[in-house]
Specification:
Chain B: It is a multi-pass membrane protein. Chain B: Residues 59-246 form the ABC transmembrane type-1 domain. Chain B: InterPro entries: Bact_Polyamine_Transport, MetI-like, MetI-like_sf. Chain B: The chain crosses the membrane at residues 7-28, 65-87, 94-116, 128-151, 183-207, 227-249. Chain B: Pfam families: BPD_transp_1 (PF00528). The structure holds two protein chains of two kinds. By secondary structure, chain A is mainly alpha-helical. Chain A is 76% helix and 2% strand. Chain A has twelve helices and two strands; from the N terminus they run αββααααααααααα. Chain A has helices at residues 4-31, 48-55, 57-91, 96-104, 111-122, 127-134, 149-173, 177-185, 190-219, 222-227, 235-244, 249-282, and strands spanning 35-37, 40-42. Chain A has a two-stranded antiparallel sheet with strand order 1-2. Chain A is globular. Chain A starts with a helix and ends with a helix. Chain B is mostly helical. Chain B is built from eleven helices and no strands. Chain B has helices spanning 2-26, 44-50, 53-85, 92-104, 107-120, 127-150, 156-163, 168-197, 200-205, 212-222, 226-257. The longest helix of chain B is centred in the N-terminal third of the chain and has 33 residues, at 53-85. Chain B is globular. In chain B, 45% of the residues are buried. Classes of the chains: A mainly alpha, B mainly alpha.
Chain lengths: 283, 258
């Protein structure tokens, strides 16, 4: 069959995505070079917004904070998720698909409901504080539990852990146990088998899961807003404020595009890492 | 080693279900204060939610968005899945990246970009803009669900149909379409659930008619009330029931497709 049928089928989807995803982002890019003159937009292109971002300690700090949070949650979810993915792929047996489904079910409750539940759990009079008092660990409720970076990162870990597990699980599924047996036959002990066989061969899964978690943490708006209190100001909420209350759309666009450009660089590096490590695994 | 990992997996699953279990417990707890110990069983919070006309209106708005979103995402996702997994096409790699883009771009950035575009082109914000915007972010998921059914279909069946004299179109209609029908149904349900739960994008591009997610967000930004527990439980269990249905359909597909 010629290549034409597939191209024809893809055409409406391509048109739709160009109109509602690519075009808006390009318009956003154009806006990032404009400027606000009193209340009107001045369509006079300059790099002023980007210069402002580079020169502002606040915006630089918010951008760094976003990537710091992303890296932290990637690290936590990979440590928590690695054994889970291994178990699901290699030990769950007949329970595998049931467990995978169970892992994904909380995702379908929606972002709002999950954030709400963490407020109930972490509040000053919340379940965790009450339990700690009951158990005699502390006399008075721990005030900093909710509306803190801790609360935000607990909920972010909760939100995105399933994505890390899925990425790793796919890697474990394609890991042939014969490699490990061969390593054992050659005298490799368990820690060395892990470091020299299992870890390198599941590395693409770690990168894929890590990228997904990273981009979602960096882009999360609700969780820091509703659980972070004063610490909940993120680069994403700054963009939101510039569009919502400050009406500085050009500056907001420039920050948004700075974030997009950095994320794209991460994707390029991630794609390269995955390609290279799957070449190693395949040879 | 194995016992330790079993324990770890149990702990992780407990962590995943702890928040849901808590709101379920408090939704039937007879006290305005949401903390331990429990004061007794009640269904009054559910009654309060059911009797709230504002939430009822929001629910209807949500439905009137989620139905068309699910249809559009499934139609486009079906085309995309066919192009990616079944019929050869030029530029498949680029097309795959384009499909994934809405999933990988922070939703708020996509939302402000669409806001600017609608504003520049003079498109009034309405339920139609919500439907279009939500279809974009649901599309990667519906494509994935349909593709997961399509890749199990034996491509030899198409050749066999051609050998028996079927045209490309009739082979599609009589062989591929029946086999992918379950995938389409599963995609519809998943898209419906994702659409109804979406908040960030919806808040930006919705006009005066506010779906449930936007109403609930403004409610609990200010105060937590036990009736919000009841509402959350109804949403969660409604969603879980729908997703279970989709999974059942998809499983059935993998049996007949294999």
């Amino acid at each position: 069959m010629s290549l034409r049928v597939g191209t024809l089928l893809a055409a409406p989807v391509t048109a739709f995505l160009l109109a509602l995803c690519v075009a808006p982002l390009l318009i956003l890019f154009a806006y990032s070079f404009f400027r606000v003159d009193f209340v009107a937009i001045s369509y006079d292109p300059s790099f002023a917004n980007y210069a402002k971002i580079a020169g502002s300690a606040t915006y630089r700090g918010l951008i760094l904070k976003a990537f710091g949070s992303g890296a932290l949650v990637v690290a936590i979810t990979s440590v928590i998720g690695y054994p889970v993915a291994w178990f699901l792929a290699k030990r769950a047996g007949a329970m595998k698909s049931a467990l995978l489904t169970l892992l994904l079910v909380p995702l379908y409750s929606g972002d709002l409901v999950r954030v709400f539940a963490w407020r109930v759990l972490l509040g000053a009079e919340g379940v965790i504080n009450r339990s700690l008092i009951w158990a005699g660990v502390t006399d008075a409720p721990i005030q900093g539990l909710l509306f803190s970076p801790l609360a935000t990162h607990i909920a972010l870990t909760y939100n995105y852990l399933p994505f890390m597990v899925i990425g790793l699980w796919l890697a474990f599924e394609s890991l042939d146990d014969a490699w490990l047996e061969a390593a054992a036959d050659l005298g490799a002990r368990s820690p060395s088998r892990f470091a020299r066989v299992t870890l390198p061969l599941t590395f693409p899964g770690l990168v894929a899961g890590g990228l997904m978690v990273f981009v979602m943490v960096v882009g999360d708006y609700l969780t820091p807003q509703l659980l972070g209190g004063a610490s909940g100001i993120t680069v994403i909420s700054a963009i939101n404020d510039l569009f919502g209350t400050a009406f500085d759309w050009p500056l907001g666009s420039a920050i948004a595009w700075t974030m997009l450009a950095i994320l794209m660089a991460f994707f390029a590096v991630g794609a390269m890492l995955i390609r290279r490590s799957s070449l190693v695994g395949g040879s | 080693m194995s016992r330790l990992s079993t324990l770890w997996v149990w702990a992780v699953f407990a962590f995943m279900y702890l928040p849901i279990a808590m709101i379920a417990l408090f939704s039937v707890n007879d006290s305005k204060i949401m903390s331990l110990p429990f004061s007794g069983f009640t269904l009054k919070w559910y009654a309060e939610v059911m009797g709230d006309g504002r939430l009822g209106g929001g629910f209807l708005t949500t439905l009137s968005v989620a139905f068309p979103v699910a249809i559009c995402a499934t139609l486009l996702g079906g085309l995309a899945a066919l192009a990616i997994s079944f019929y050869p096409m030029r530029g498949r790699g680029i097309f795959a990246v384009l499909l994934l883009a809405p999933f990988l771009i922070p939703k708020l950035i996509l939302a402000v970009a669409q806001l600017i575009m609608f504003n520049e082109t003079g498109v009034e914000r309405s339920l139609l803009t919500v439907i279009a915007a939500q279809t974009v972010i649901v599309l990667p998921f519906s494509t994935l669900v349909i593709a997961s059914v399509l890749i199990r279909i034996d491509r030899g069946l198409l050749e066999a149909a051609a050998d028996l004299g079927a045209s490309g179109l009739s082979a599609f209609r009589r062989v591929v379409l029946p086999l992918m029908a379950n995938g389409l149904m599963a995609s519809w349900v998943v898209a419906f659930v994702l659409s109804s739960a979406e908040y960030v994008l919806t808040a930006f591009v919705s006009g005066r008619a506010q779906p449930l997610s936007v109403l609930v967000a403004s409610d609990f930004r200010f105060a937590l009330s036990p009736s919000l527990n009841a509402l959350a439980v109804m949403i969660v269990f409604g969603n879980i029931a729908l997703v279970a249905l989709a999974e059942l359909i998809r499983r059935r597909a993998s049996k007949t497709g294999a």
